Amino acid sequence: MKQFAIILISAVLLNNYVLSRFLGICPFLGVSKKLDSAFGMSVAVTFVMALATAATWPIYTYILVPNGLSYLQTIAFILIIAALVQFIEIALKKYIPSLHAALGIYLPLITTNCAVLGVTILNLDEGYNFAESMVNAVGSGLGFMLAMVLFSGVRSRVDASKTIPKAYQGIPITLTAAAICSVSFMGFSGIVDGLFH
Amino acid sequence: MLLPVVIVGGIGLVCSVILVIAAKVMAMPADELFDAIRAELPGANCGACGYAGCDDYAKAVAHSGAKTNLCIPGGAGTAAAVSAAMGVVAEEVKPQYAVVHCSGNCNATEDSMDYQGKQTCAASKMFYNGKGSCQFGCLGFGDCLNVCQYGAIAIVNGIAVVDKSVCVGCGMCSKVCPNHLISIIPATNTIYVGCSSKDKGAVTRKVCKNGCIGCKKCEKACEQGAITVTDNVASIDPEKCINCGKCVAGCPTGAIVTCESRCESIPVSA
What we know:
The structure holds 2 protein chains of 2 kinds. Chain A is mainly α. Chain A contains 10 helices and no strands. The longest helix of chain A has 31 residues, at 130-160. The N and C termini of chain B lie far apart (73 Å). The relative contact order of chain B is 0.11. The A-B interface holds A 59, 63-64, 67, 69, 72, 75-76, 79-80, 83, 86-87, 90-91, 93-95, 162 and B 3-4, 7-8, 11-12, 15-16, 18-19, 22-23, 26-28, 118, 123.
């Protein structure tokens, strides 16, 4: 149990995909304007991260590794994730229309999201087994959600401000705010050691 | 050498076969009713119907039983076409247009400050209730003009004026005006109150020559009982008004206006 807790906490706080690993920056800047769309996007990302890990881990372990093809993991994973997201969209549209209405517009964005690819590859780099990989995938998704939700709050405050110089409005102030958020997450370094060792 | 090609190609092939099967098995029937209705709507996405856009309205008509005559820009023609697509009898669409309840132009009132901030009505309103000496009046930065998709609004001599012949009555301007000066009235009504000042008569008179002072002369002049004065400002019930013009003649400050007199002030180029 302890190892799962360590993986979960490091995925959410310590190695936060957006703010520490700098993956998935595109949706982080693009979809974080409003709280509800930021939340919807994060739920979709979490969902796809878990399913992508469930699909890629067995393929890597049982097909690529025995044949000595682990160097093909990137291209094979991109293929699988893209097909998986398309499949999820078709299936949701048919069987769970309400979930499709909520996540539908975000799913095509996730097809080429580097955070999802990052989770699947880093799981293998860390040498996690299947259960640990799944915990890490869900934790990474939750970390993504935490960053998105926090940043949408920051952003709505920044956008409401009337005192930003014209040259600094829009993307420049957003990137600066993101950098400060990222620095604040550096404060979590050492939390796993402190809690569990 | 061949193995990597076979394996990656095989993964791709399996994925594509699964996707093709999924697309066939889980195919959703195309929504013909929605497409037919959406094709009849103007596509301006103005929101006058009360839905998020033409797509949303078409969906509501097709599946949630929304009324077929809510598209105001499309008017009777669109209502008939949408009703035909739905197979129901069309209800009449009442044409409407926007009127601005302020006559405080540059000749009638003055600014109370030299406002240098962001040049929008919303920003000006936040700063001590706007730049005008009348806090209820038109701010004149044209937030309504910017939101109008039909080019029906012009800022003439410091106040917003609606061109009745162009306005479709979608109500976008009325939502955006920070002083809530714009209302949507039926196209058959030509007379409206050109003031929204809730100040007492003496105060209104001091800041604006054209303001309603709440004297109630119009209330007495109106034989239809269409006018009531509440909070020191007259209001006309468009249901009862017959456009006789007795209130216009009786108003000592000229606060009750006709849309014809107002439209004449719009330059032809606008």
